[in-house]
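[Discussion] Sanity-checking designs against the backbone

I'm trying to build intuition for which residues belong where. Below is a structure token string of 94 positions. I'd appreciate it if someone posts a full sequence so I can compare it with mine line by line.
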């Protein structure tokens, strides 16, 4: 959440240069201490985590099984390719 501040100074018609408003710097965050900002950060994290749709136990076990099977297939594929390259190098270089 970024705050946009206006840094341009526009003199009021007929007013003196002292009556101009100075731009605000830092916004609301500059007034808070480090601990207050940290507490706000953690409150925002918790609020976002409450919005997450968590998978059920069955969905989680299904996803885990799919990942493990996929990794096993890729390991087998890489093993076959590695064995083929090993045999090719033995054939070429003796």
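Best answer:
Here's mine. Compare freely.
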């Amino acid at each position: 959440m970024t705050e946009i501040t206006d840094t341009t100074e526009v003199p009021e018609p007929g007013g003196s240069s002292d009556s101009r408003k100075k731009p605000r710097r830092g916004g609301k965050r500059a007034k808070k201490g480090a601990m207050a900002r940290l507490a706000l950060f953690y409150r925002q994290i918790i609020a976002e985590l409450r919005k997450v749709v968590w998978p059920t136990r069955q969905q989680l076990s299904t996803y885990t099984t799919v990942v493990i099977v996929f990794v096993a297939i890729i390991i087998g594929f890489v093993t076959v390719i590695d064995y083929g390259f090993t045999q090719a190098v033995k054939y070429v270089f003796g």
